[in-house]
Amino acid sequence: MAIRLSGMTSGLDTDSIVKAMVSSYTTRKEKYQKAQTKLEWTQDAWKSLNTKVYSLYSNISNLRFSTAYNLKKTSVSDTTKATVKAGSGAPSGTQSLKIKQMAKAGYMTGAEIKADSEKTTLAQLGYTGGDAKLEVKMGDETKSITLSASSTMNDVVKELRNAGLDANYDSSYKRFYISSKKTGVANDFTITGSNIDGASALYSLGIAYGGEKTTTGTYTSNPYDEYAALHGASDDETKANIEAAVTSYNNLTTDAAKMNAQSKNLMNAVNYGYSYATLQGIYEKLDANKAGDSDKLKLLEKLGSSRDGALISKNGDSYDTYTKTTLTDTAGHTLYKYIDSDNNSHYIAAVNDTDKDTTSYYDVTESTRTAYTDADGKELEAAPKVVDDTTLTVGDKTYKKDETDGKYYLQKEDGTADKTDSITVSQKTEYTIAADAVNKTGIESASAAYDTIIKSMGEKTKSSYDEALASVQAFEASKDEVLGSDDEYSVASLTKAIQNAYAAGKDKDGGGKKAVEQLLAGNGKETDGFVNKANDLEKKAEAKTKKAADSNIVKELASKQKDSAEYTQALNDLLDRVNTAYTLQNKALFNSQVKKVVGQDSEIELNGVKYTGDSNSYSINGLTIEALAETGDSAISITTSTDTQGVYDKVKDFLTEYNNIINEMTKLYNADSAGSYEPLTDDEKDQMSDKEIEKWETKIKDSLLRRDSTLGSVMTAMQTAMMSSVEIGGKKYSLSSFGISTLGFLNAAENEQNAYHIDGDEDDANTSGKTDKLMAAINDDPDTVMQFMQQLSTNLYSAIGDKMKSTDLSSAFTIYNDKQMKTEYTNYTKTIKEWEKKISDREDYYYNKFTQMESAMTKLNSTQSSISSYFS
Prior knowledge:
It is built from 22 helices and 30 strands. By secondary structure, the protein is an alpha+beta fold.
């Protein structure tokens, strides 16, 4: 940069002069800065609008499915006994509920002891032992506690809480109060001593519980009896008893797991059987209209989510599937791959004709050649000369093979390898459309083919098809983790039995559907019915599980690999526990005053079926039941019905969100022109107040999307989708069929002519006085309203989705050309920097000239001064 002297000799305002001389450059720079600022504001406007459109798009995604409208409301005849909420899957009607038993948490009230405060120690209570080892057992979890003579009541409370219990010592009543944190049998607790001192400490604390004291002086629930029962005459005999208990436990749990798996499969097979029969009926109906459609549909079903990007082609009586690959032919056309029955791969190339909007498909030939690439991964234009297996030459350069990585490196004059210059030799597979290749006919998009078949179904058939297909695919895809495939109740066996029944009964009276129903019902023998079998197996599994719980003390040992170090250690630990328990069985003292409420599971009967759980909450067939009190043998009723107000509100909320967005779009599109307003420069802002600047910029920002073609296109797509009609049961419906319409240009407020209003909506002053046709339709025929809203939502979802697809100019889920704008913004930044450089260069040039002038004038003044001195 030139030295910038500002008129020191000449007295000129050099800065102002230079600024004026480069003003044309500055004006050009400011032009681009203003354009960039305006672009940035436009990006912000689009981002804000896009966020709202994407939110609408996401929200209406769920509205495409019936579950969004299957809203239920429920009432209970006695709300002091239970509260009930109904989900979308809850059946309408009245059901009977009995609450036989409430879930309870385990609770212990300790005996009165002589601890005057929380700081009283065990020693002060008369405890004289050493380390007192205690065990707190809750369900399958056991935690150890160690106390000493110096431990205070506060210490005991802290240790019990750390072990997972709620505990408190009340010095007023001189008792411990202890409870489990959760209800249910599995969450109940026991506190025992794991040595003599531990049992003694519990007695001193007044929490040594052994049940009720009998007339003989024994206790009904001695906590050490369970372990002591495994004690033998010697350690070897005790170990034998323990291992026998492990074997029994394993057998019981294995049998229970098998029966539970069988029961589960049988229950799932019932739904599968009905769904399978329904699906086959739909296939047969398709073939009755057009032979072969069912085979095509079955293939498309197998493709599932991979239909997108896949092609299918008729091949005799079957279809071939071509999946999209990342490969291209030598001309850059995308390749699709088909694998035949011999596991051979075949490829076709997709050639797009953009002018005609068509795609042709050609077989390609596969060939392999040797490719040579340089260190940057670029293929050499000309192949090197192969001297021998280890040497290549390119002109006068020699490359030698390095056996460690297989690359050929340039040889330097000193004989070493230049690791920066290398050649890699590889085999490159190429695909080329044969010269005589003929356009393959009969190829179609898998997703388009699937949509065509689905659209050929009626709305009710399509709904049945979707549900049946989902059920069939879920069951057939499920895996048996316990049962072998040859088990008569495995997924494979039950699937085969149902399919065989359908096939065998297909040509008989009632058809395959009746044959499946008979199989599920037991073919006339009630006990052979799938549901009865499942219930019987579940009861047997429950009995075995309860029996296994009787030997639950060996559960941890049973989980170890026999003969492993872990098993041996666990066995020895259990041996010590059994021996200690045997000793404590007779020596431990119990507090007769301690009271224990045993943890209890809840039990209810819904429509005569018993359910149990460790809490008072149940979720059954769409109902969420919260038991509050026992009903005994009396029943209370639960009445469930369609929540018409909920459905109405769902439609209203959807329209409200749509209206908010379409109104904003309309306002942005119809905004007033900003005229000659442009973003302000810093100098211009300095001459204005903050309020004036804000007003100026708002004028511009409000007009940024005025008459924007992209915005207009999105609005049109959304409006078209909302105005579309839907055919249900042979009759066409639109929003106006349900009293939903716009107010029109003459009656609507400014920029709200595209918003929809519901006749009779009490919150809408424009239409509140009209007859509420929507609520009437929901009450009279909710299925039609739901089907209409599903299809309307689907139409709008698709319309917005099409506008949000990724292109070369825009990202996915974006309605505007964000990629293009980002590129333009970057280009502006680059251009502005270039003009700043030009301005700086010109300023340097002019300042340099002025500096030379100042220097010359300084010399001139010096010379004149010198001459003058001669005449003084």
